C-alpha cells in the first residue's frame, strides 16, 4: 500500500510558565493507506499531542514549531499546485503550508478524530441523530461543490455559520441527511437506529455512545481516522466489540486508522505497524511483527516486558522503573532520554541517538545505539556515574546560556 500521510520532523511545544515543553520532537513516520498504525508509549510521552498536531488541533500555549505533514490527495494536490507549488510533491500536499481555513476544511472529509470520552464530541442537548445528520450535511456541501478544497472551506464555513448563528441546527438538516445518519448508526451496530437517533446522548450507554461518536466521525468519509484511547474507559467485553467494529469499518471503507493506546493487547489485535513514543520522540517503529517480536530499543522491550498473553485484551504497559521526563527543554540533556532508566545504558548513550528518518514505511528503525553496536558491559554506565555525567552536562548547558 502507498502512504497516505508522511509526517516529517514535526515538533510541537508548549510555552508554559515553567518553560518550554517539548511535547513532540521531530517526529517522522508514515501512515499507509488502509492500515492501522498504532502509537504506544507511557503517559506523557506525546501521543495525543502528536495526533492533535496532525489535524491542527493543538491549542495555546501549544504551538507546532516545525515540520511537514504530507497528505496524499491528488485532487487537493492539483488545486494547490498552481499557486503554491512548494506545498505540493506529486500527489502529496504539505498541509502545514495550507491556510488555517483550508486545514480546517480537511477535518471531516480527510481526517477525523475520536476520543476516550464521547462527550467531548457529542453535544448533550441535541439528539444523536441530529448531530450525526449535521456532520453528514457539512460533508455533502463539501462534496457537491466541484472545486472541492477551496470551496469546501467556504461550504464548511457557511454550514458552521448557518448552524451556529442563523438557524437552529434542526432546520437545515435535510430528511436525506437524517436518513443517512440513521444508516450510519446502523453501520456502527446500534440496534433500532431510527428510534435511537431521536434520543439524547445521556440515554446511551458508554459503548453505544462510543459507537455514535464513531458514526459521527465516519459521516465525512475520512481518509484517516485518529482514535485516541477510544476504548480505555470501557469494560473489556465492550472494548473488544468496539475494536472489532473499528477493524471492520476500516476494511469496509478502506480508510486508515491511527490508533493511540496504552494497551499492548489492543496493538497486537489491531495494528499493522507500530510507532513507540518516549519523551516526545518516536524511539522505535516498524511492522507489528518487527516491534513485538524483534524489539530493539530497551524501552520497547521494557514495555513488552512480561506481557502475559496478547490474546488477553487487558494487559497494560509494564511499568518500567523511573518516570518519563517532564519534557522541559531546559532539563533535557543532549543524551538518550531513556538512559537513566535503561538496563543497557553505556557510555555511548551520553550523546543523543539518532534514528534513520529517511527510511520509508517498510523499515524497522530504533533510536538507540544498540542498532549500531552490541551491548558491552565494560562500557556500562553505573548509575552513580551516569548521574555525575548528566549533572556535568546540565551545568555546562547552563554556563552556555
Ligand atoms: N496544554 C498543555 N500545556 C502544557 N503541556 C502540555 C499540554 N498538553 C500536553 N502537554 C505536555 O505534553 C506532553 C505530552 O502529552 P500527551 O498528552 O501528548 O501525552 P500522551 O502520550 O498522550 O499521554 P496519555 O497516555 O496520558 O494520554 C506532556 O509532557 C504534557 O504534560
Ligand atoms: Ni494521550
TrEMBL record:
BP-aspect Gene Ontology terms: peptide transport
List the record's Gene Ontology CC terms alphabetically.
Answer: plasma membrane
Gene Ontology terms for molecular function: ABC-type nickel transporter activity; ATP binding; ATP hydrolysis activity
EC code: 7.2.2.11
User: Which key words are in the record?
Assistant: ATP-binding, Cell membrane, Ion transport, Membrane, Nucleotide-binding, Translocase, Transport
InterPro entries to which the protein is assigned, alphabetical: AAA+_ATPase, ABC_Ni/Peptide_Import, ABC_transporter-like_ATP-bd, ABC_transporter-like_CS, Oligopep_ABC_C, P-loop_NTPase
User: Which intervals of the chain are annotated as region Disordered?
Assistant: 380-401
CDD domains listed in its UniProt record: ABC_NikE_OppD_transporters
* Pfam families according to UniProt: ABC_tran, oligo_HPY
Task: Please give the name of this protein.
Answer: Nickel import system ATP-binding protein NikD
Source species: Haladaptatus litoreus
Amino acid at each position: 500500500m502507498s502512504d497516505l500521510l508522511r509526517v516529517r520532523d514535526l515538533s510541537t511545544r508548549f510555552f508554559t510558565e515553567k518553560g518550554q515543553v517539548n511535547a513532540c520532537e521531530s517526529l517522522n513516520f508514515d501512515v499507509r493507506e488502509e492500515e492501522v498504525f498504532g502509537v504506544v508509549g507511557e503517559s506523557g510521552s506525546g501521543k495525543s499531542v502528536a495526533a492533535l498536531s496532525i489535524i491542527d488541533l493543538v491549542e495555546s500555549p501549544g504551538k507546532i514549531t516545525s515540520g511537514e505533514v504530507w497528505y496524499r490527495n491528488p485532487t487537493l494536490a492539483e488545486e494547490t499546485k498552481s499557486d503554491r507549488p512548494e506545498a505540493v510533491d506529486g500527489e502529496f500536499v504539505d498541509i502545514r503550508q495550507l491556510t488555517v481555513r483550508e486545514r480546517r476544511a480537511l477535518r471531516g472529509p480527510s481526517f477525523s478524530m475520536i476520543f476516550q470520552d464521547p462527550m467531548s464530541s457529542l453535544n448533550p442537548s441535541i439528539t444523536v441523530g441530529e448531530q450525526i445528520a449535521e456532520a453528514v450535511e457539512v460533508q455533502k456541501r463539501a462534496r457537491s461543490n466541484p472545486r472541492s478544497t477551496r470551496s469546501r472551506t467556504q461550504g464548511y464555513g457557511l454550514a458552521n455559520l448557518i448552524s451556529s448563528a442563523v438557524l437552529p441546527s434542526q432546520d437545515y438538516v435535510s430528511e436525506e441527511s437524517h436518513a443517512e445518519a440513521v444508516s450510519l448508526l446502523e453501520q456502527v451496530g446500534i440496534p433500532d437506529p431510527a428510534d435511537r437517533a431521536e434520543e439524547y446522548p445521556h440515554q446511551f450507554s458508554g459503548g453505544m455512545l462510543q459507537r455514535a461518536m464513531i458514526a459521527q466521525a465516519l459521516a465525512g468519509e475520512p481518509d484517516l481516522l485518529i482514535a485516541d484511547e477510544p476504548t480505555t474507559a470501557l469494560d473489556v467485553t465492550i472494548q473488544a466489540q468496539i475494536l472489532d467494529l473499528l477493524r471492520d469499518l476500516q476494511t469496509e471503507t478502506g480508510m486508515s486508522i491511527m490508533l493511540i493506546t496504552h494497551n499492548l493487547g489492543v496493538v497486537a489485535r489491531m495494528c499493522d505497524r507500530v510507532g513507540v513514543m518516549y519523551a516526545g520522540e518516536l524511539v522505535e517503529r516498524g511492522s507489528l511483527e518487527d516491534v513485538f517480536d524483534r524489539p530493539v530499543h530497551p524501552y520497547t522491550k521494557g514495555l513488552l516486558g512480561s506481557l502475559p498473553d496478547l490474546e488477553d485484551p487487558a494487559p497494560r504497559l509494564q511499568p518500567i522503573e523511573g518516570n518519563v521526563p517532564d519534557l522541559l527543554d531546559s532539563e533535557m540533556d543532549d543524551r538518550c532520554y531513556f538512559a537513566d532508566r535503561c538496563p543497557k545504558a553505556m557510555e555511548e548513550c551520553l550523546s543523543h541517538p539518532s534514528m534513520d528518518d529517511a527510511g520509508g514505511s517498510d523499515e524497522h528503525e530504533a533510536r538507540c545505539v544498540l542498532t549500531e553496536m552490541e551491548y558491552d558491559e565494560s562500557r556500562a554506565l553505573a548509575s552513580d556515574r551516569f548521574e555525575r555525567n548528566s549533572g556535568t552536562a546540565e551545568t555546562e548547558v547552563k554556563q552556555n546560556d
